[in-house]
Amino acid sequence: MAAVTFKYLKMNNKIIFITSKHRHLLVQAIDYDGNILSQYLNNINDHRISDIIYTCDGIYVAGVNVTIYKVNVTLSDANLNVDLVPVVIKNPYPLYELYSLRFSPNNLICALAMVERKVQARKEALKLEIIFICKEMKPESMLDTLLSNPMKKLTHYWDYIELLRFQITKLKWRPKLDFNELYLSGAQDIYKLKIYLIFLTYISGLKKVLRLVDVALPETSTDIVKEKILYLHAKQLLDNLYTKCQNEGQLNDLDMESLYGTKKYLEYYAKKYKTDNELDQNVLNALENSCDYVCQCCDEKIEGFTCKSGHLNMFCMATFTPICSDNYLMCQCCNATSRADLEIENPICVFCDLYLIKPD
After folding, report:
1. Tens digit of pLDDT for each residue in 223-271?
2. Terminus-to-terminus CA distance in the chain, angstroms?
3. CB burial of residue 56 (10 Å; 0-12, 13-18, 19+)
4. Whole-angstrom Cα distance, residue 260 to residue 254?
């Protein structure tokens, strides 16, 4: 029977091939000349293997009868040892068939693609259902992991965030966290401010449902928190552009537009919140009237971020420049927008650190 699912990995200068043949799991250790050194062949159970997936935590095998095994492979000299560890699922789903599974980046959440096989359902068209299961993990531990993230990016930690959201909104869990300290530390740490924005969004949503929520927040306006995030982003962008100018001697047109937009936002923020403008005065003078934009509604000149009539224009959150065409990117989580001509591979959202996509 031909192999359907095929995976491989490198171990001890050998290639480990992992594949399935109906009910059997086949693991082979092969050298770089194509010689089979050792192999393992065994049927997992009396049901067909539906999927094999490789994750950061190892290799997992799924059976059509909703059974999942973790495959532990060890290679000593030319001897191959394979150990199958069953993954415990609280709900056995006896009336379902499992056809595929995928794990989140940190293996906290698993998505199961299943089909219900009830007798009465045979008269109807088959429907594919996506069921999410997760590891049993204390929310306090997930919160500590999120706060101590060494990468200072939320991009690959959204499985932690989603589980915390479930704990807060569904199970009414109250995070034991000093929000005052978190908010104050966010004045210099944009990552901490993003985490505060996430909790603010979830807790505000919970307060709309439950009148009694004993969680006090130092700032309850998402708009103010987002403007603080943009302020820190503007300062960081200004430093990056200054360093680039020092190293390369000049800036391209997009960088000059970003520099001008950054200056405008810092001026706007300083005026609105009555803070000192930390931008160098020489930079202010050099960028005066260097870029002109017109309103998309009335064709009047945009002063700062609006025209004289106060019309709203679509702006790029990454560069603080107007979006003047239908070709733009957006965040699926918070709907933040960005220009599509950014000279960045896989640009991410300023607020969520999620990858931006083109809208449908």
Report:
1. 999 999 999 999 999 888 888 888 887 888 888 888 888 888 888 888 8
2. 42
3. exposed
4. 10
